[in-house]
Amino acid sequence: MSKVLVLGATGGIGGEVARQLSVAGWQVCALTRDVAKARSQNAAYTWLKGDALNRQDVIAAARGCAVIVHGVNPPGYRNWAEQVLPMIDNTIAAAIAERATIVLPGTVYNFGPDAFPVLSEDSPQHPLTRKGAIRVQLEQRLLQSSREGARVVIVRAGDFFGAGAANNWFSQGLVKPGKPVRAVSAPGAPGVAHQWAYLPDVARTMLELIERRAALDAFACFHMAGHVDSDGTQMSQAIQRVVLRRTGLQPRVGVFPWWLLKLAAPFVVTFREIQEMRYLWQTPLRMDNQRLLAALGHEPHTPLEHAVEAALTRLGCLPTPA
């Protein structure tokens, strides 16, 4: 049985990748600060006490692992400058020691508008934000690690939604978790394309690439096409259709209150960081997945309304079927 270390297994992407790897027969090890709590939620994994910010914890947890899934991030938009790079450096040290493959969920923060509207893996990375600059440094360190004994697989996708993902635009911007959907808040402008990615599809893509890792380059990056909201209204309309079918009531669509974030940004770090990302909603964006198709022959893809219904159900926004 192959062994994998998942950092961030209690979160969204890390949790879903861990679940799919476990179902596929992998021995899943996961690092957590609260072993008892984590084990009570999922006893199928080998939970190890530790912190992704502690290098010795990560190195010890990775012993015997062929793969390390780096699905951990600071909560919200806080403490990126202090934590993101030290965490990836610890993962790199462990991967080099084990000659393991690092698997990373990538973001579009690396790119500025000069690379839009179509992003390929080789598009120039000229980020506009502090978070974007950190992500560029992170991937540069991964590239260097691939020359020092580690292997790297990056899967870059649009905005996550679905499964256990809670810290994302879908669950924090468009709807309100745990509450019936009476209104949808749309961050984008009509006519501006936006990129979405259903988290279980992202995890499935990672799993299939992990299974083919020996045939990939030492540093391999892939883009997912995901769900392209081609005119900026399709995600909101999909939510409306799902809610109408399940409840008989159609929620209204309103405009996301960017003005409020702008007013509060000087006083709230999270709001300032979100405000910096507004350009991703003002410029059309689509991701080219030809390299992924060449590697896998297909891209895992759940139909949009099925994905939206599953996401809303998981968030507690839809009534439980009788």
Automatic annotation (TrEMBL):
Pfam families: Epimerase. Residues 4-214 form the NAD-dependent epimerase/dehydratase domain. This is NAD(P)H-binding protein. InterPro entries: Epimerase_deHydtase, NAD(P)-bd_dom_sf, NAD(P)-dependent_oxidoreduct. It comes from Pseudomonas veronii. It comes from the Bacteria. The lineage of its organism: Bacteria, Pseudomonadati, Pseudomonadota, Gammaproteobacteria, Pseudomonadales.
